[in-house]
């Protein structure tokens, strides 16, 4: 949040997942957002959004907070506004979308189990939630798009370019000056350092098509990327290297990414439901373990993927690792910080807080 007393405007960032309760720094939850909003005292607000979505009820709560805010709200899409994040975007009095940003709407999703009657009740609830989302969209588009057309777009999971979002009325103007760094690595879409797992979406392949079309020469003036445009991929590689070193010390072998190229949509949906159910069955109420599980749910990992990590935390709390893994992990983190690898993630701790951060990681693993 940027809110200096001498400045007449303020800025809030929604970068990452939208959640009901905040566990990690890059998440946005209604409670913390309300506190940040209250501190602005009605100043004109620029809301910068780069999010793959998340909890629809949390997004609706944030939408209502913004609609009640006394100051003018300008929403700017800094890369991606998808799923529940589009609700928050629609709260802006003015919405600006860079020419190479993305906007995606689809139907609400849930995980359900039970008998046929319980399933029917769940489906009815989803229809009610969808209607509430459609109402938000209708208010934003101002007559440019009809309700039936919006519902059809949601049914199809529709990915929109800036021009398409403007034509439908979701945004008010296109920014042709601000560059956005984007790349796809495997199934991960990375836009301005925010990752989005495309496996979670029905038509994530459309994103590849849109990005490929951008590489085709046009008569439009090209937007020059910032210097160091490959920084995102370099940082991701550094992060992967650090995680692999830690995994090696714990004796965890890297699992190859699953391939879903030949998988039917029905199989993919079934697999996703089973993945979530298996992860939720591992919840224990332990803050650290449940945090790992919730992260896995968002990142597309399976119960099998994270079991070695959960076992490592559990064993570390029983007794100090005899092989000195905790100290080895501490040394790895220290080496990476001293070599400048702390720059791989946004919001890295200042130099005088590095040691405290290292100790905290090790203490969490040991249950101290």
UniProtKB/TrEMBL annotation:
This is ATP-dependent Clp protease proteolytic subunit. CDD domains: S14_ClpP_1 (cd07016). The keyword Ribosomal protein does not apply. Belongs to the peptidase S14 family. It comes from Selenomonas ruminantium. NCBIfam families: Clp_rel_HeadMat. Keywords: Cytoplasm, Hydrolase, Protease, Serine protease. One of its GO terms (molecular function) is ATPase binding.
């Amino acid at each position: 949040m940027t809110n200096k007393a001498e400045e007449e405007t303020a800025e809030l960032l929604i970068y990452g997942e939208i959640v009901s309760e905040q566990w990690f720094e890059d998440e946005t939850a209604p409670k913390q957002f309300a506190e940040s909003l209250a501190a602005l005292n009605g100043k004109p607000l620029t809301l910068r959004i780069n999010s793959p979505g998340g909890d629809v009820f949390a997004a609706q709560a944030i939408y209502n907070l913004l609609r009640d805010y006394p100051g003018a709200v300008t929403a700017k899409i800094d890369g991606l506004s998808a799923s529940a994040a589009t609700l928050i975007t629609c709260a802006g009095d003015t919405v600006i979308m860079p020419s190479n940003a993305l906007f995606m709407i689809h139907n609400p999703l849930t995980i359900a189990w039970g008998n046929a009657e319980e399933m029917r009740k769940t489906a009815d609830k989803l229809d009610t939630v969808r209607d509430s989302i459609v109402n938000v969209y209708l208010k934003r588009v101002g007559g440019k798009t009809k309700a039936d057309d919006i519902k059809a777009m949601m049914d199809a999971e529709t990915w929109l370019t800036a021009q398409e979002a403007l034509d439908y009325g979701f945004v008010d103007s296109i920014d042709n000056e601000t560059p956005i760094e984007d790349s796809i690595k495997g199934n991960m879409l990375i836009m301005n350092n925010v990752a989005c797992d495309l496996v979670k979406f029905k038509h994530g392949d459309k994103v590849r098509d849109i990005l490929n079309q951008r590489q085709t020469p046009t008569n439009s003036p090209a937007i020059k990327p910032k210097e160091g445009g490959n920084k995102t991929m370099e940082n991701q590689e550094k992060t992967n290297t650090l995680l692999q070193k830690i995994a090696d010390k714990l004796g965890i072998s890297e699992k190859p990414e699953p391939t879903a190229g030949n998988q039917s949509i029905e199989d993919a949906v079934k697999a996703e439901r089973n993945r979530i159910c298996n992860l939720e069955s591992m919840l224990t109420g332990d803050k650290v373990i449940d945090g790992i599980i919730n992260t896995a749910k968002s990142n597309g990992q399976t119960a099998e993927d994270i079991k070695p990590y959960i076992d490592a935390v559990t064993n570390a709390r029983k007794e100090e690792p005899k092989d000195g893994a905790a100290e080895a992990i501490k040394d790895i983190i220290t080496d990476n910080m001293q070599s400048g690898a702390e720059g791989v993630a946004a919001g890295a701790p200042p130099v005088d807080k590095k040691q405290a951060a290292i100790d905290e990681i090790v203490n969490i693993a040991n249950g101290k």
